[in-house]
Amino acid sequence: MLSFSKILGRKTQGRKTLGRKTLGRKTLSRLLALGAMCLPLAAPAGAQTLTMATQSTFGIDPHFFFNGPNMAAARHIYDTVISRDENSRQVPGAVESWRAVEPTIWELKLRPGVTFHDGSPFTAEDIAFSIARIPNVPGNIGPYTINLRTIARVEIVDPLTVRLHTSEPNPLIPGQMTNVFIVSARAAANASTEDFNRGRAAIGTGPYRVVGNGVSPTGMRLQRNDSYYGTKPAWSEVEVRVIANDAARLAGLLAGDYDLIEDVPLTDLSRLRREGRVNIASRPTDRIMYLSLNVATDPLPLVVDGHGQPLPVNPMSDVRVRRALSMAIDRNALVERVMEGQAVASGQLTPEGFGGYDPAVPVPPADVAGARRLLAEAGFPDGFGLTISCSNDRYVNDARICQAVGQMLARAGLKMNVDVTPSTVFFPRIRPARVLLPMHFVGRSFSSGDATYVLSTSFHTRDVPRNLGGANRSGFSDPAVDAVVREVMVRMDDGREAAVRQAMHQVQDLHVQIPLYVQMSAIGTRRGITYTPRMDEQVVAVHARPAQ
Fold first, then answer.
1. DSSP sequence for 65-101
2. Are 148 and 59 contained in the same domain?
3. Which residues contact 491 (CB under 8 A, 6 or more apart)?
4. What percent of the chain shows pLDDT beyond 70?
5. Which of 61, 99, 185, 397 could form a disulfide with 193 if both were Cys (CB 3.0 to 4.6 A apart)?
6. How far apart are the first and last CA of the chain?
7. Does 240 lie in the same domain as 91?
8. pTM of the prediction?
9. 255 shares its domain with 328
């Protein structure tokens, strides 16, 4: 048995690498896109270099900042403890099997013969080290610790067998382990986040290895790992370029500068499909987009009266106000008009196909008159001033959605202010435990596969020692809800699904988080290249293949 401290050595040193800027003026970028349509497309790329244009900057320390762009980059280089396919199913990878040998013990069997990029063998010690490193990455604005909540200790049975001992029964261990990346205990023993981003410690078992100077704000270069145990990637090299501006990415695809781009502008999808000059692959994802309401009883500086003065109470601490906000929003209109039909309206905080989703729950219709009545009943017949905050470069059409939601709430009598900032500003402002924003728009991916992830991270009272409520940005706390959450989290019997659904009904009726829609991904490729989109939205080069 190895302790975390012995496996880890000293704590890592790191720095934040989050950030990007939106490029170019909107008008100019549109002109670029239109001009590119007149250019001939270059010949399809051969199986040598694939050039990908992504929207967001990223880091390649796979334990720093738990977000989609970082995970997509990491999947090229590292394996996760348990692998996840494009349909978010748990599949064998570097770990070929897993099972619960007891309610609080999960046994993992490693695939024999797997090696790291430097030729060293992959063993149980590397899994133990990786799990131990995660809580010790300093300055982490979005740590991966949420996936380790119940792991009490890691037992190395032999070089190819690991046992995860949990503090309580946890049926979500396999799903949580699809988010935990494996690094080399030898290469990363004293490595900082900077060492990873420079490429010095970025040694994985994945299909590609990083070359050159690691990652920069403009992207990274990858080379195929010829010793990879899995299906051989089609491309010997991959160039990942960060192009934040949607129109600039599309212009580059049409001009032949890029072979693959993520987040094709929704306004162009119909035309692109009709013209057939590029391939478009799209699908619903596992990401629910929702509004998070700050329900703290303390006054909030951005909740004001008709004269712009802070209110002495927070109106959103009243469930009637929160229900009114939900009723004022026309989800179908958001999907049809803002998202160009490339989303699925939802009245649940769980996407279809995941544990806790209830097919009997309809999409709630908009009812502006009913919203006004509820606001009056709660003591706000003339409404109040409210700010909605969002990013303008993280989610598909995020700024436009915020503007539309602001207009819908204004029709219910609220004096709305829409606060749109780059993700580098937005995400630090919504760090749990210190959120002062009254309402913000954000998305959540369901990588763990079950709604108890939402219950334990967003609706349980913040409890840092037990790693509960780690994503609770609303200030919500209810001992009765806490008890329900803790009860369903540990269930491993046949009644588990019904219990999870019931718990989700309970928290959804509180309207602390207001679900809007399930986001869809749209990937564009040059003709001659096909791409299979992932349900988790992560754009990974191994899913691109030359067309047959």
1. S--HHHHHHHHHH--BSSEE-TTS-EE-SSEEEEEEE
2. yes
3. 169, 171, 499, 500
4. 91
5. 61
6. 50
7. yes
8. 0.82
9. no
Say whether both 324 and 400 belong to one domain: yes
CA distances from 428 to 3, 140, 242 (A): 33, 11, 21
3-state helix/strand/coil string of 101-140: EECCEEEEEECCCCECCCCCECCHHHHHHHHHHHHHCCCC
Closest among 175, 242, 156, 253 to 447, alpha carbons compared: 175
Give me the amino acid identity at 519: Q
Sign of CA dihedral 499, 501, 506, 512: positive
- For the record, the structure tokens of 168 come out as 């309580």
Q: What is the CATH number of the domain that holds 325?
A: 3.10.105.10
Which contiguous run of DSSP H or E holds residue 522?
strand 513-526
Residue 26 has pLDDT above 90, yes or no: no
Question: Do residues 323 and 266 both lie within one domain?
Answer: no
Please check whether residue 512 is in contact with residue 318, taking contact to mean a CB–CB distance below 8 angstroms.
no
The count of other CB atoms within 10 Å of the CB of residue 63 is 28
Residue of 115, 106, 190 whose CA lies nearest to 148 = 106
Domain range for 219 is 4-277+527-546
Indicate which CATH number applies to the domain containing 180.
3.40.190.10
The predicted pLDDT at position 91 comes to 97
Look at the chain and report how many structural domains it folds into: 2
Reported as a single tens digit per residue, the pLDDT across 458-501 is 999 999 888 899 889 999 999 999 999 999 999 999 999 999 99
